[in-house]
User: Which sequence fits this backbone?
């Protein structure tokens, strides 16, 4: 009986003493932390993807609190997250359009191979050996380094052999862009569907010979765009999303199917026929106007 | 107690009776936090730190409280209580006075609270009848042994990611096999006892 009493007393007293010490310590060593910090942290994506450029979400939250990072620093949190954080911080949010990552290459099995690569399944490794296994020096190597970097399961190697983004899952953290040794991945607006799926900066034959779906810089898209929204820069077509209205005419005139979504043959035929009919109509009208002119006089 | 006995304790704790590879204590953080080398180093340093301190405090508690009140059978419970309180206290102390060390140890410090390597070192100190200094040395060198093991293991695991291995072994299974092989190789130290 005495033993039990001693045990209970000793443990009880020890527990009480430790509790007291901890209670005092928590007051003495209290670190004043901003109550906004956990609130901000709550509105970040919480994936620790590093897309913001800081070491994890809590570091990003600390920088937002400092004002050294914008309230919209967390791309995966999206516009709602940015708005919520802006509310906590008491600042206005810059309006953000939802963006997604896009791989500017549709090569895969369309691209010519220089050799069969059988080393480590890693894009950087593959790109180091004689300039990579593809003839095209700008093409997607399809080893999936971007897919491995993606924390949101939004990046996969598509059936064609090139990497494809799942726009629904993508949060535009751009961790994949950092992992791509060929710098093929950019952020594009989620709701603009016209995207140039090639980054080959070579022109004409040099681009044509290495891949079946390469942009050869012919400029047909530029000439046919009714809004002046697509331009050939550095040998590859680039869409200006401020002007693009998604009419998809460029996809229909592209002789190389390098602009996604690629138009089917029928669509192209239809567009060409319509163009032809319109041109004929115009010519007829011009001829009619010419023949009508003398009578007016 | 002499310098050679301390050396022999250190050598034993680091290599011969390595906490992970021959006593199989602390395998949970060993497998859990060894995917990357830098986190492994953080964990190892934190464990070393806590094991050293815990050895000192638990030895004192054992000597001046448990033995006096004839409560040796309560060792495990008391040591858990002491270690948990100690880790909490250290965490608060570091956060206030050494923020850089606090961020370096980060999440690993609270993780160690119920680590069996820390409890193990406290109990082994008593079992081996070490005095205070020997206990502290055993705690710190045991932690260094943990650090060595987890750093070696993390380095191997980082390379394992790129190695080709059968699909069914990818990921965790191959890590367990690696750990087993490393434990085997550490058995090679078993005859090593230069100072008796």
Assistant:
């Amino acid at each position: 009986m005495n033993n039990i009493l001693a045990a209970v007393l000793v443990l009880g007293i020890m527990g009480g003493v430790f509790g007291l010490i901890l209670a005092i310590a928590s007051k003495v060593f209290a670190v004043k932390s901003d109550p906004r910090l956990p609130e901000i942290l709550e509105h970040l994506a919480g994936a620790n993807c590093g897309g913001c450029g800081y070491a994890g979400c809590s570091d990003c939250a600390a920088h937002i609190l400092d004002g050294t990072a914008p309230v919209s620093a967390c791309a995966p949190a999206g516009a709602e997250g940015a708005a919520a954080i802006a509310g906590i911080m008491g600042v206005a949010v810059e309006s953000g359009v939802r963006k997604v990552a896009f791989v500017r290459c549709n090569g895969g099995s369309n691209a010519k191979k220089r050799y069969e690569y059988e080393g480590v399944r890693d894009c950087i490794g593959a790109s180091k050996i004689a300039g990579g296994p593809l003839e095209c020096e700008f093409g997607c190597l399809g080893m999936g380094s971007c897919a491995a970097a993606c924390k949101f399961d939004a990046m996969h190697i598509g059936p064609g052999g090139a990497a494809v983004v799942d726009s629904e899952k993508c949060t535009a953290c751009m961790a994949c862009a950092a992992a791509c040794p060929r710098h093929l991945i950019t952020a594009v607006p989620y709701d603009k569907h016209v995207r140039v799926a090639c980054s080959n900066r070579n022109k004409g034959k040099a681009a044509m010979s290495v891949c079946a779906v390469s942009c050869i810089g012919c400029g047909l898209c530029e000439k046919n765009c009714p809004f002046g929204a697509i331009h050939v820069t550095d040998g590859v077509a680039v869409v200006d999303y401020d002007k693009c209205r998604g009419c998809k005419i460029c996809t229909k005139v592209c002789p190389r199917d390098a602009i996604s979504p690629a138009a089917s043959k029928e669509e192209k035929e239809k567009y060409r026929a319509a163009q032809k009919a319109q041109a004929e109509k115009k010519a007829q009208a011009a001829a009619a106007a010419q023949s009508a002119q003398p009578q007016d006089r | 107690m002499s310098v050679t006995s301390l050396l022999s304790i250190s050598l034993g704790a680091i290599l011969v009776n390595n906490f992970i590879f021959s006593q199989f204590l602390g395998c949970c953080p060993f497998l859990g936090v060894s995917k990357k080398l830098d986190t492994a180093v953080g964990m190892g340093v934190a464990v070393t730190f806590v094991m050293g301190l815990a050895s000192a405090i638990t030895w004192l508690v054992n000597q001046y409280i448990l033995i006096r009140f004839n409560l040796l059978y309560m060792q495990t419970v008391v040591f858990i209580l002491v270690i948990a309180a100690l880790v909490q206290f250290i965490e608060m102390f570091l956060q206030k006075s050494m923020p850089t060390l606090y961020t370096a140890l980060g999440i690993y410090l609270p993780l160690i609270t119920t680590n069996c390597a820390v409890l193990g070192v406290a109990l082994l100190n008593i079992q081996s009848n070490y005095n205070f200094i020997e206990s502290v040395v055993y705690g710190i060198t045991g932690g260094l042994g943990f650090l060595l093991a987890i750093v070696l293991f993390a380095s191997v695991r980082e390379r394992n990611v790129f190695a080709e291995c059968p699909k069914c072994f990818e990921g965790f299974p191959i890590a367990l096999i690696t750990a087993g092989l490393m434990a085997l190789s550490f058995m090679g130290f078993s005859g090593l006892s230069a100072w008796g």
